[in-house]
Automatic annotation (TrEMBL):
SUPFAM superfamilies xref list: Glutamine synthetase, N-terminal domain, Glutamine synthetase/guanido kinase
Cross-referenced SMART domains: Gln-synt_C
The protein, known as: Gamma-glutamylputrescine synthetase PuuA
Keywords carried by this UniProt record: Ligase, Magnesium
Native species: Roseivivax marinus
Sample GO molecular function, one term: glutamine synthetase activity
Listed cofactors: Mg(2+)
Every GS catalytic domain range: 119-453
Pfam families for the chain: Gln-synt_C
Keyword field contains Ion transport: no
GO biological process: glutamine biosynthetic process; polyamine catabolic process
Family label: Belongs to the glutamine synthetase family.
């Protein structure tokens, strides 16, 4: 087994130096982005080349029920997939009681073809389409989340956590270092876990909500960055649990507080030269730069169902609450859905501010890149750059999940990029979740309708 360990990434080898590896968690992300898989003894993992899981893990809703997404001709027979490890993803699980590694696996069918509805395969498919055009997409995600008090009763409102001072986390303290210090012990563990896993954090800041933080990651390959967000969600939750609080990535966990986004910055490089296709020889903005924006404006409405995958997601799109309500674009303007940050020509990029932190990172990044890709291929031109406060304009994005799914179902061009089988399965599972939600009677309905209508 020592020979096998020598092939691991450096961070994993450093973590295990002088220690005996006990267990390996073989994992894959399902549609919500939950880690599914098996934990096996290290000695067994060293002998196995693959393992099996049923394809039905991609038909499961967030509540544990099943969308009727199996092949209509064959019925729900739960075929086994073949899952092969991507050893480049081998990473520590430093919160465990023994010495454990996590390894992300890729899903294939019995004919050796990638399983189309596996989220990591969906993102790979989109990246390969870019490669075929001679382009290398580069992304940089920003992760927003809340640290909240333990909540074991779904009937109770979510409340901010207690900080070091013994007072609840305060809102309206964006970029406050004092507010960050309130969560110091949790943040220390996040840094320690990230270092053990070999991840580089570009920065941690306090956001506008009570107990809301943001972590920025360095730009890079889309699949690798999606892997990191997938891993980060787990490590942040584990760090919070060590300090008697919860970390939540809900889009809108607390009423009257800002929602949590996964802003995605995009740039596209030429594969041969390594230079940005968004910047010309003299440093000016190219047609490709505008076509990418035009693709986002045209196709993002159909992709919202992927970027905002739950009924709660649409509570985030609230005027004047740090989330976009339309698809306007502008330079250095955080009220628009599509923002061009200040940068030099070599780092020119386009930020999608629509994705919620509750989306699956593989699918959210894939959908965002897919919209830009379609714009490049169709040579779409955007609307005129927006000037002023975009919150004063009209909303032009779906406001409920049902409407978003209707747009997604009709988006054949987007399906062709993401994969028709993925689009079919995703729609069925999300409609099953939406229909289940519609069966729930909310406290608002009981309070205002019970005796008044």
């Amino acid at each position: 087994m020592s020979e096998w360990i020598e092939t691991l990434p450096q961070a994993a080898r450093d973590y295990l130096e002088g220690r005996r590896l006990d267990e390996v968690e073989c994992i894959i992300a399902d549609l919500p982005g939950i880690a599914r898989g098996k934990a096996v003894p290290a000695s067994k993992f060293a002998r196995q080349k693959y393992f099996h899981l049923p394809d039905s893990i991609f038909y499961q809703t967030i509540t544990g029920d099943w969308g009727e997404a199996a092949d209509e001709d064959e019925g729900f027979i739960e075929r086994d997939m073949i899952l092969y490890p991507d050893m480049a993803t081998a990473s520590a699980a430093p919160w465990t009681g023994d010495w454990t590694l996590q390894v992300i696996h890729d899903a294939y069918d019995r004919k050796g073809k990638p399983v189309e509805c596996a989220p990591r395969n969906v993102l790979r498919r989109v990246v390969e389409l870019y490669h075929k055009q001679g382009w290398q997409p580069v992304v940089a995600p920003e992760m927003e989340f809340y640290l909240v008090a333990r909540n074991v009763d779904p009937a109770k409102d979510i409340e901010p956590m207690m900080g070091r001072s013994g007072r609840p986390a305060a809102a309206r303290q964006a970029y406050s270092m004092t507010a960050v210090d309130e969560f110091g012990p949790v943040i220390d563990d996040i840094y320690d876990f990230a270092e053990a896993q070999g991840f580089e954090i570009d920065g941690i800041t306090q956001e506008g909500g009570a107990g809301q933080l943001e972590i920025n990651l360095r730009h890079g390959d889309p699949v690798r960055l999606a892997d990191e967000v997938f891993f980060f969600k787990r490590l942040i939750r584990e760090a919070a649990l060590r300090h008697d609080c919860f970390a939540t990535f809900m889009a809108k966990p607390i009423a009257d507080e800002p929602g949590s986004a996964m802003h995605v910055h995009h740039s596209i490089n030429d594969l041969e030269s390594g230079k940005s296709i968004f910047s010309g020889p003299q440093g000016g903005e190219t047609d490709a730069f505008f076509h990418f924006i035009g693709g986002m404006q045209t196709h993002l409405p159909s992709a919202i169902a992927v970027l905002a995958p739950y009924v709660n997601s649409y509570r985030r799109y609230v005027r004047d609450h740090a989330a976009p309500i339309n698809l306007e674009w502008a330079r250095d303007n955080r009220t628009t859905g599509i923002r061009v940050p200040l940068s030099g020509p070599e780092s020119r990029r386009i930020e999608n501010r629509l994705a919620g932190m509750d989306c699956n990172p593989y699918l959210g990044i894939a959908a965002s890149l897919a919209c830009g890709y379609l714009g490049l291929m169709e040579e779409r031109w955007p609307s005129k750059q927006f000037k002023g406060d975009a919150y004063e304009g009209d909303g032009d994005i779906p406001r409920v999940l049902g409407q978003a799914l209707d747009l997604f179902d009709g988006a054949t061009a987007l399906h062709d990029v993401l994969g028709p089988e993925f689009a079919r399965v995703y729609s069925i599972v999300k409609r099953a979740e939406y229909e289940e939600f519609l069966q729930v009677i909310s406290p608002w309905e009981r309070e205002h309708l019970l005796m008044n209508v």
